[in-house]
Each structure stands twice: as C-alpha cells, then as structure tokens.
Design brief:
By secondary structure, this protein is α/β, with parallel strands linked by helices. Helix content is 44%, strand content 17%. It is flat and about 85 Å long. It starts with 7 loop residues before the first strand and ends in a 7-residue tail after the last helix.
C-alpha cells in the first residue's frame, strides 16, 4: 500500500450540472477531522443525516447549509471512515466546497474509481463484484441491469469460493499422497476419491463457462448487421430502427461507405445494429471497395444478419449471394414491398423470406421486429441466470478447467506434477476474484469508472 492509498479522498458523487442537491463524499483516515473542521462542531451521530452549516476553516466564510452524514469504518462502502455532504446543487456551491477541501492537509481529489478500488483493497468487494459494479454503472437495458446486480450481490463470487475450497481439498489429498508415498496403502486411500471429485469440478467449470458466453454478448450488446446489395434499403432500415436519420439515404449505389452503428434496447436486451456498405461484385471506386471490405468484416463478427433483398435490384448482377459467413443467424428480408405490384414478379415464392417489408410504408416492420426478438431470445435467452458476464472471467474458469482436466486424464503423471496442476487451477481462481496481484488489470477496470465512484 502506497501513500496515495492512505490519503483522504473526496469527489462529487452525484451528476455534474445544476441540480437540487449535489453529494460530495469523502473517504480516508482524516475524514472525521475534516468533517469537524467544516462544521465547527463535534461529529454527529453515526449514519444519520443532520443539518449543519459548512464553513471554510481558513476564513470562516459560509459555504452552504448542508445535510451531512458521518459513516465510521469499516462498515462502509470503501471499508474506511467516510462522510457525505449533501449541498445545494449549484455549480458555485460545489466548486466552493471542492476548492476548500483541496486546501486541507491530507485531502486530495479522488481518481476515477478510487472509492471502489479502496473497497477492493479493504476486502469489501472482490474483483468480480468490482467488475459487476462497473457494468451496473454502464447498464442500458433490463438484462444488463439484472446481470450486473447478480454479480454485485456476490452469487458468482460465492461459487468461486466453493470451488477454491474444493480445489484446496484436492491439493491437500495430493500433498498427503506425496508425503506418504512410501506407505502405499495411505497414499492409495488419499487418492481414492480424487478422480471423481476432479471430474465433477471440470463438468461444473465447463457448464458455467458455456453459460457465460451469451451473458457476455448481452453485456456488450448483440451484434445485428444489416447487409445486402446496394440500394436495397439498408440505411433506411437503420434509420427506422434508430428513430432518427443516422445514415444518409440516396438512390445512388455506394452511398454508404463505412459501417454505422446504433444502440437499441430490444425488450430489455442490448442490441447494436450495424449498417454496412452494399456488396457487389466489382466497382472502380477505391473508397467503395474499402467500404465493402469493412462490411464483410462486420459480417464475420455478427450474431444476427438482416440480409435485405429488393424487387428492383438484380442480385445476379451484384454477386451478393454467399457473402454471409458460417455462424451468425440470418433473416432474409424482402424490402420495398410497395414495388411488388409495379415491377414484374421476380420473387414468385414469397414464402422464402422471413419477412416482407417496406421501410417506406412501414409495412411488415412489426413482423420483422418480432422475428428478430425471437431469434435473439433463442440464441441468447437464459443469459440473465449466468453467474459471470465478462470474457476475462470465463477465460479464467476455462483455464482452471483445463488444468484439472489434464490432472484427471493423466493419472500416470508424477504426484508432484498433478499437485502442481491443482495449484495452477487454484491460481486461476484466485486471479478470477482478485486475490493475487492484478495491478495492471485494476488500472484498466477502474478507468471504466466515473470520478466519485
């Protein structure tokens, strides 16, 4: 722990801008002294809001009439002594208070996520809970909200602690067999139950890791790519989904040159919709070729593809078929249904499409949305019950499973090697919840937090 970790920190914890009330929070060993100096009175009763006049200790001038609360550690969010100052939310009041605090010995402004970092260092949260808190602050949809609350409540952390106990017990059995290797009956008894227990743990690890994959996508947002030949109405569909003119719409082929994206809430599920350049066989325009390459790249990363067709676009001339890679689910949509009566019938088998729509008249768009909701639900439903929602967490679980699987599959390995495999699995679990040195990772995670959290 360095000096900065024992400073008393402060920050505006409510939103910036004019508001009825602004909340400034403090955390650290000098909190009690600072609170007394600001109010000119003894500490108020713990965990009760009381009215106090805040003054500049140097000049005696009034800062504001405020509600203050004294929160003695260690039973606080950060695990340290804390205080909250609820002042009027004008910029002048907040700036004055923060300026006074900056001039007090032992106090300094908090860095991004520093209150939460102290909660981790003081054992109030583990790393999985810290990541869940970051996700909660960024949650945009109901599913993201539920996933983050589950992680913050410690459901996944408790499962990891159970795994750690079981792996530790396995390691103890292996160590016992090593210690009594010359007494074969003792060593044999110690190892009797190891294969069954290892197999059960591997199955559990792999099941939890599989469940984490759809949760990761729900946390990040399901990737829906709108693709197809030029002039089939891709940008118009994006604008309709967004409810605003995000993309330029033109009758000229190749208008869309880059990948545009819009975030949507689809029945509580986070969805990112991407509009891409039209795909065709040849073009002399270098910029359009780059756009098509980016469109193809977006398709390789898609979860769902909305492939548009139109009766006034001759797909045989644009070489647009066969462009969707294996993996994403595809909804084939026939757009410009309003032209079907005026153009010679080129689609006699309309049942071959997942939906027939007209972005211009909005015909069939509700049906298309229904199909999209169903498809996303089928592919990513159940994510809300996942214990983990980050790729880092899943990879640590998979790494632990890999070590234990090798331990189970190679009973011919020396006992010392098998014990080391168990030790490695335990190390991955420790890294999962932050029990070992993860300083570089912490810097990355706390960069996601706002000042004051």
């Amino acid at each position: 722990m360095n000096q900065r970790d024992i400073d008393t920190i402060f920050a505006l914890s409510s939103g910036a801008g004019v508001a009825a009330v602004a909340v400034v929070r403090l955390s650290g060993p000098a909190t009690a002294d600072i609170l007394c100096r600001l109010t000119g009175r003894p500490l108020p009763p713990a965990r009760k809001l009381v009215l106090r006049t805040l003054r500049d200790p140097a000049e005696g001038s009034i800062i504001d009439e405020a509600l203050v609360t004294w929160l003695p550690g260690p039973g606080t969010f950060s695990g340290e002594d804390m205080a909250e100052l609820h002042v009027h939310g004008s910029r002048a009041v907040v700036d004055c208070l923060l300026g006074v605090l900056s001039g007090l010995d032992g106090a300094r402004p908090a860095e991004a996520g520093e209150f939460t970092r102290r909660a981790l260092l003081n054992g109030r949260l583990d790393l999985v809970q810290v990541e869940a808190l970051a996700d909660l602050l960024r949650a945009e949809t109901r599913v993201q909200h539920k996933l983050a609350l589950s992680g913050l409540a410690g459901e996944g952390s408790r499962r990891v602690e159970s795994w750690r106990r079981q792996v530790t017990e396995l390691l103890a059995l292996l160590e016992a067999a090593i210690d009594f290797v010359e007494e074969e009956d003792v060593a044999e008894r110690a190892l009797t139950d190891v294969p069954r227990r290892v197999a059960a743990l591997v199955d559990e690890f792999e099941g939890v890791a599989r469940a984490a994959r759809p949760a990761e996508r729900m946390r990040e947002g399901v990737r829906v790519v709108i693709a197809g030949p030029p002039n089939v109405g891709k940008s118009s569909l994006l604008n309709w989904l967004a409810g605003r003119p995000v993309a330029i719409v033109s009758d000229s082929p190749g208008t869309t040159r880059d990948v545009l994206e819009v975030r949507l809430d689809l029945d509580g599920m986070a969805v990112t919709v991407f509009d891409t350049a039209g795909l065709r066989g040849r073009t002399a325009d270098e910029i359009e070729r780059v756009g098509m390459a980016r469109a193809q790249e977006a398709l390789t990363e898609a979860d769902v593809v909305l492939w548009l067709h139109a009766p006034d676009v001759r797909e045989a001339d644009v070489d647009a078929q066969g462009r969707v890679p294996d993996g994403p689910a595809v909804l084939h949509l026939l757009n410009k249904a309003d032209l079907l009566d005026s153009i010679p019938q080129r689609y006699p088998d309309e049942a071959g499409f997942d939906a027939i729509i007209s972005v211009k008249t909005e015909a069939g768009l509700d049906k298309m949305l229904g199909r999209l909701r169903t498809l996303v639900g089928e592919r990513f439903g159940g994510a809300e019950s996942a214990l983990f929602a980050r790729a880092r967490q899943r990879r640590k679980i998979e790494a632990a499973a890999k070590e234990l699987r090798l331990l189970a599959e190679r009973p011919d390995l020396p006992l010392e090697v098998r014990a080391e495999l168990a030790r490695a699995a335990l190390r991955h679990l420790d890294e999962l919840i932050g029990r070992v040195d993860v300083e570089d990772l912490l810097d990355h995670i706390f960069a996601e937090f706002c000042i004051g959290k």
